[in-house]
Write a structure and sequence with these properties.
By secondary structure, the chain is mainly alpha-helical. Helices cover about 60% and strands about 0% of the residues. The chain has helices at about 1-25, 40-55, 65-90, 100-105, 115-125, 135-145, 155-160. α1 (about 1-25) crosses α2 (about 40-55). It is elongated.
Length: about 160
């Protein structure tokens, strides 16, 4: 029963969305709408019949769970392929059909800004907004000593992972 309800809902949604897509192609003003327009019963039934036929892989007029899973998997794969092609086209700024290292790097987006001010403030003993090797070493020793809670001169995994108060 759950499969039948799922199948009905999938067919219903697919038919409505397909009808909206078809109408948007014939009436460009509908592309801007956020919600699908009303669908006539004949259009709905036509789309439902087409979707059912697409799911019925062996054409026996019965859609099994396996056929539905295969249909849905293919549909998802097609959507992914389309998104990948759109992403590739967007990244391929010179439209040469290949991604240069610079174009590929755009996939990751800009690097996040890293705020080092707290580290500098914690370690910069003379407040000159620079860290000398002596200040760095003193800061590292202080950090070690703070984490070495049992004062044995070694840091255990637990001491390294512990939060400092």
């Amino acid at each position: 029963m759950a499969i039948a309800k799922s199948l009905s809902l999938t067919i219903l949604v697919g038919a409505v969305l397909t009808a909206h897509s078809a109408l948007a192609q014939t009436k460009p003003e509908l592309k801007m709408a956020n919600t699908p327009p009303a669908v006539s019963k004949p259009t709905f039934l036509t789309n439902m019949d087409r979707d059912f036929a697409a799911m019925d892989a062996n054409k026996d007029k019965i859609v099994t769970k396996a056929e539905m899973e295969q249909y849905m998997a293919a549909r998802v794969a097609n959507q992914r392929t389309k998104r990948n092609a759109e992403s590739f086209a967007r990244l391929d700024s010179d439209k040469n059909g290949a991604l240069s290292p610079q174009e590929f790097a755009a996939l990751a987006g800009p690097a996040p800004k890293i705020n080092v001010e707290p580290l500098i403030a914690k370690t910069d003993a003379n407040r000159d907004k620079q860290i000398s090797d002596a200040e760095y070493r003193a800061g590292a020793i202080k950090e070690f000593d703070t984490r070495d809670t049992n004062k044995n001169g070694m840091l255990s995994v637990e001491e390294i992972q512990a939060k400092i108060k």
